[in-house]
Amino acid sequence: MTANVGWVNVGTDADTGAFAVESIRRWWTTIGEGAYPGATKLLITADAGGSNGSRLRLWKVELAKLAVELGLQISVSHLPPGTSKWNRIEHRLFSQIFMNWRGRPLTSHEVIIETIAATTTRTGLTVHAALDTDTYAKGIKISDKEMKTLEQHQIRRDEFHGEWNYTLLPHPENDTLKST
């Protein structure tokens, strides 16, 4: 928000937890890493539902892998259910994108990416857009055992609504998680 820069990863396949985490990975390697050199922590604000929902196991497993991969402590704060209208990104970024493509036929992925990337505001908002043509499997099940291991070794829940606010450690307490 303070950088006045947006990132949109447009997928052509399923909107899964793996896709949501890949979108974060692409933002980090394209923009975040250069904009925040030396960072050791990343804060993600997310809606309560969708591919990055607070109860979705795949989202947490993939995000835990990303924390290890990037060596970053990743903290997640979900908006409470039913409050996505308060999401500042929705108002600041997506409303501008939708106004920009209003009335324009979105005839191809190229047109979609170009239209999103052309979004600007008088206050200096710029938007980066990328096309993600990877495939993401639907219906991946994360076992109770895998979740229990993740909860014990890599997830730290906040005292205030730990079901919505938690941190994934970049160095699990048990090295066997690094290979999963």
Provide tags for this entry.
single chain, four-stranded mixed β-sheet
Describe what is shown at a glance:
The chain is 37% helix and 18% strand. It has 5 helices and 6 strands.
Describe this structure as you would to a colleague:
It is built from 5 helices and 6 strands; from the N terminus they run βαβαβααβαββ. It is an alpha/beta fold and 180 residues long. The protein has one domain (5-179). The strands form 2 sheets. It has a 4-stranded mixed β-sheet with strand order 2-3-6-5. Helix 1 (17-35) runs parallel beside helix 2 (57-70). Residues 175-180 have low confidence and may be disordered.
Number of helices: 5
Q: Cα distance, first to last residue? A: 34 Å
- Number of E-state strands: 6
Shape field: globular
Q: Main sheet, how many strands, which sense, barrel? A: 4 strands, mixed
Detail the poorly predicted runs.
175-180
Give the topology.
Layout: E1 5-11, H1 17-35, E2 41-46, H2 57-70, E3 73-78, H3 88-101, H4 109-117, E4 126-132, H5 144-153, E5 155-157, E6 165-168
Parallel strand pairs: 1-4, 2-3
Antiparallel strand pairs: 3-6, 5-6
